[in-house]
From TrEMBL:
Superkingdom, natural source: Bacteria
Involved pathway(s): Steroid metabolism; cholesterol degradation
Co-factor(s): FAD
InterPro entries: Cholesterol_Oxidase, FAD/NAD-bd_sf, GMC_OxRtase_C, TAT_signal
Family statement: Belongs to the GMC oxidoreductase family.
Record-given protein name: Cholesterol oxidase
Cross-referenced Gene3D superfamilies: Cholesterol Oxidase, domain 2, FAD/NAD(P)-binding domain
Pfam family, one: GMC_oxred_C
Location of the Glucose-methanol-choline oxidoreductase C-terminal domain: 439-489
Keyword field: Cholesterol metabolism, FAD, Flavoprotein, Isomerase, Lipid metabolism, Oxidoreductase, Steroid metabolism, Sterol metabolism
Length: 503
């Protein structure tokens, strides 16, 4: 097949990819975005683009015959997951030995499936993780830019205090307060004005109809509505969907040559593509970008990649857990899917934890308080390449997850003691499992800023090759990560467009 030559290519259309695409397009550089997932803009037979969490169909997950929701069971019954037919659905769960990783698939990447929490990291911890990045510039310029571009807003506190839809969060806040812990409001990209109209019955329900991990049909400002819409608006961006990059190499003239697999809705490879470009931006996410680079190094396609490529990977210390409230501490049958409160104990030097108060919308009173704890787990893993399967995987172990669990347990033991409550043991599949320690929503690292790349995401050893996504973050950032990923990508693009692309 003929090689298609373009000035710039961006791999992936999540946060890192979307920022790169917009800024390249604005700079007048013709850019091709290659995304393995589909474009989510066409209603299915039910009139909706995305399916709901309660009645998942083929749109829910990436080529599965059964859904794999984070909460596997309720009262130990396998009532949550449903059989589906294989299709390029929006949520993927990538399995490794002791850890599986949830990621979004489609134009918009993780923004299509995530909880929308847009959290600025604690400044001192950001400084610890990124000692060579000018924090003044980040907190003065790039975090504000990212918040504005992503459409970050906050829940109206008066409405929060009065609405049935956040009773679950108020109940968890009370339990935390009883243990002397403080909670904080968490900003979000979900339009809270829209949510209030949902509650008032004047807008079609989305967050108030259980929609989130398989996509929101309304209200969520996902990247296809923000960065990517503006990128398309520049007239310089083309997005190819259902096209997965397999191979990257560098040609004698210094351009990059990419080989792709084009897949159909059944997952069959129906063709391959070849593209060459002068500038190559990797935004395939922590797993995607790290695998592409580890494969390129180990197969000899990009042999000069630094030894640190594939190292420094972590789960952001993620652990999910549930507590059983007393009968009089109701959470309500109505729960918004969009979290707005976090328990902030990050300043506790003995056991730093930031725990999001998560919804569990089931349409009935279940007395469960659910949490996603982000712990300061110092463990990191490295990727290894397997030539037999041509894939790379992080060697994360169960013992490394146990570190996150013990930190989460320390915090929630305090909350349980202060409230005379207990954990729920029926939510995560196997009997008596109180902590979901085998999945993460926050894969981070693999191509860490300042190690695998220079301080601006330029890959060491390869001019005009850049990383702009979550693989730059060294395994932990202490809060939900997409705002940090977006702000770092803005910083990289500002520098690269000023220094590297001038004629
Ligand atoms: P991201 O994963 O967004 O995008 C990568 C894209 O590249 C994907 O579209 C993928 O299909 C594509 N791709 C990968 N390999 C490819 C290849 N070889 N060829 C072509 N395309 C390829 N964070 C947060 O801050 N607040 C929150 O509330 C949440 N909540 C949350 C809930 C759930 C269910 C999940 C799964 C995740 C979250 N997150 C979150 C995490 C957040 O979504 C995540 O950190 C970012 O999406 C990561 O952004 P990246 O740009 O790194 O990659």
């Amino acid at each position: 097949a003929a090689v298609e030559a373009v000035p710039a290519i961006v791999i992936g259309s999540g946060y890192g990819g979307a920022v790169a695409a917009l800024r390249l397009g604005q700079a007048g550089i013709r850019t091709l975005v290659l995304e393995m997932g589909r474009l989510w803009n066409t209603p299915g037979p039910d009139g909706r683009v995305f399916c709901s969490t309660t009645a998942p169909d083929q749109r829910s997950m990436w080529f599965r015959t059964r859904t794999e929701a984070p909460l596997a069971t309720f009262l130990w019954l396998d009532v949550v997951n449903k059989n589906i037919s294989p299709y390029p659905g929006v949520l993927d769960r990538v399995h490794f030995d002791a850890m599986s990783v949830y990621v979004g698939r489609g134009v918009g990447g993780g923004s299509l499936v995530n909880g929308g929490m847009a959290v600025t990291p604690v400044r001192s911890y950001f400084g610890e993780q990124f000692p060579t990045v000018d924090a003044n510039e980040m907190y003065g310029t790039y975090f504000p830019r990212a918040r504005a571009m992503l459409g970050v807003n906050t829940v109206d506190p008066d409405w929060f205090e009065s609405t049935e839809w956040y009773r679950f969060a108020r109940t968890s806040r009370k339990a935390a307060a009883n243990a002397g812990l403080k909670t904080t409001f968490v900003p979000n990209v979900y339009d809270f004005g829209y949510m209030q109209r949902e509650a008032a019955g004047t807008a079609t329900k989305s967050a108030l109809a259980g929609e989130v991990i398989y996509g929101n049909n309304h209200g969520k400002r996902s990247l296809d509505k923000t960065y990517l819409a503006s990128a398309i608006g520049t007239g310089n961006i083309t997005i190819n969907t259902l096209e997965r990059v397999r191979d990257i190499r560098r040609q004698a003239d210094g351009t990059y040559l990419l080989t792709t697999d084009r897949i159909d809705a059944g997952g069959a490879v129906v063709g391959t593509g070849q593209y060459s470009c002068t500038y190559l931006f990797l935004g395939a996410g922590s797993l995607g970008t790290t695998e592409l680079l580890v494969r390129a190094r180990e197969t000899g396609a990009l042999p000069a990649l630094d030894a640190s490529v594939g190292t420094g990977w972590g789960t952001n210390g993620n652990v999910m857990l549930g507590r059983a409230n007393h009968l009089w501490d109701t959470v309500g049958a109505d729960e918004s899917t969009i979290p707005v409160l976090g328990i902030d104990d990050w300043a506790n030097a003995d056991n730093p934890v930031f725990a999001e108060i998560a919804p569990l919308p089931m349409g009935l009173e279940h007395w469960i308080s659910l949490y996603l704890a982000i712990t300061k787990n110092p463990e990191r893993a490295s990727f290894s390449y397997d030539p037999a399967t041509d894939s790379a995987k992080p060697g994360w172990t169960a013992a490394q997850s146990a570190v996150s669990v013990s930190m989460a347990k320390k915090l929630f033991d305090r909350i349980n003691a202060a409230n005379a409550t207990i954990y729920r043991y029926d939510l995560f599949g196997s009997a008596s499992k109180a902590f979901a320690d085998d999945f993460t929503y926050h894969p981070l690292g693999g191509c860490v800023l300042g190690r695998a790349t220079d301080d601006y995401g330029r890959v060491k050893g390869y001019p005009r090759l850049y990383v702009t996504d979550g693989s730059l973050v060294p395994g932990s950032i202490g809060v939900n990560p997409f705002l940090t990923i977006t702000a770092l990508a803005e910083r990289t693009m500002a520098r690269v467009l000023a220094e590297d692309t001038a004629p």
